[in-house]
Amino acid sequence: MPQRQQDGAQPRRSGLFRRGTAGDAPSDAATTRRTRYIVDGRLTTAPLNTSIAEALTYSAAAPGRIALCLFPTPTGADIDELAEAWDLHPVLVEDLQQASQRPKLERYGDVLFLVVRSARYVDEVEEVDFSEFHILVRPNAVAVLCQDGRWIDGTDDSTLPNSDVDIEGKTLLDNESLLSLGPEAVVYRLLDAIVDGYTPVLRGLAIDKEQIERQVFSGDSAVTERIYRLSQEVIDLRHATSSLIDVLESLRKGFDRYGIPDALQTYLQDVADHLTVVDARVSELRDALSQILSVNATLVSQRQNEDMKKISGWAAILFAPTLIAAVYGMNFDTMPELHWTFGYPLAVGGMLAFAAVLYITFKLKKWM
Q: Rounded CA gap, 139 and 66, in Å?
């Protein structure tokens, strides 16, 4: 991984997590909503310009139907239409209008509201980039709002194809037997993809850690800042994974109460197990960086001690000649050595002898 540029630039952060700029759409922008129907597990096309209310009516008209509304870049008008069609609680509407939230799960009547965050590793700048998703689930309907204007893999709305075949793969709706289990299956597919996306992030962070370890023992003075920056990325990822564990635990507690099919319970439990492993690896990575920081501090202290030894040794070597010169520079009238023929050579010789003895002594003690 490339090392960060040491130009004093501050990392991009907004609130708790780093967010991109792709999701900053104006409130009056044209809707980018994509409406699709899932009938008995198969994705079908909704009529052009189908409203959210019409999609909800269609899904409720017969069993085995699910209305899926995707909002790649949700606008204020989109949220208002969704709130009116779904009769959302005002507190829930306020949450939909606010991004930069930690993963959480809340229920408002028959509406399940989830906030989840995907992550991707940006190799060029050694950063973890997060994308926030708000998911609404009710009987026969699902709405997914991409608050950062990006999909789980980091691509934006412009890369989403319009054909149903391609959209199946892009939106993870390619498993008929799974989707036939109900709208919660869409939630499972999203959570599964998000958790799977944490693995390459951990791989990138682990490579950075290995590079930092080599950098520490090479004596690079820039490594301390790199350690702190990478630690911040790991902490952000830890916030996302630990909060998502709480979300999955809340989902698990509602299995029996809300009649989640056994097959789907098994799928969700598999996601929870995978996330537990990911969270443990994040914790290990954080602990490893803390240890590396301690080792680096120790090595820096040792190098400073070595420098102080050299400075002290040279100061002592220079002190001996200075002392002799100071004695004979006192300008007393009666100093026999000043009038002695060998006085000057003896003084200079004494200076050199003292300096040589001290130099050899410090050299033997490895101070020089």
A: 8
Identity of the residue numbered 150: R
Q: What is the strand order of the sheet 111-122 is part of?
A: 42-45, 34-39, 65-71, 141-146, 127-138, 111-122, 104-108
pLDDT digits (tens, 9 = 90+) for 342-354: 777 777 777 788 7
Classified as helix, coil or strand, 99 is coil
In the chain, what are the domains?
34-298 (3.30.460.20), 299-364 (no CATH)
- For the stretch 64-84, pLDDT in tens is 899 999 898 898 999 999 999
Question: For residue 74, with 0-12 CB atoms within 10 Å meaning exposed, 13-18 middle and 19 or more buried, which class applies?
Answer: buried
Please name the amino acid found at residue 230: L
The whole-model pTM stands at 0.73
By CB atoms closer than 10 A (0-12, 13-18, 19+), residue 255 is middle
Going by C-beta distance under 8 Å and a sequence separation of 6 or more, which residues neighbour residue 107? 113
How far is Cα 192 from Cα 267, in angstroms, rounded to an integer? 9
Backbone φ and ψ of 291, nearest 5°: -65, -40
Beta strands (DSSP E) in 34-140 are 34-39, 42-45, 65-71, 104-108, 111-122, 127-138
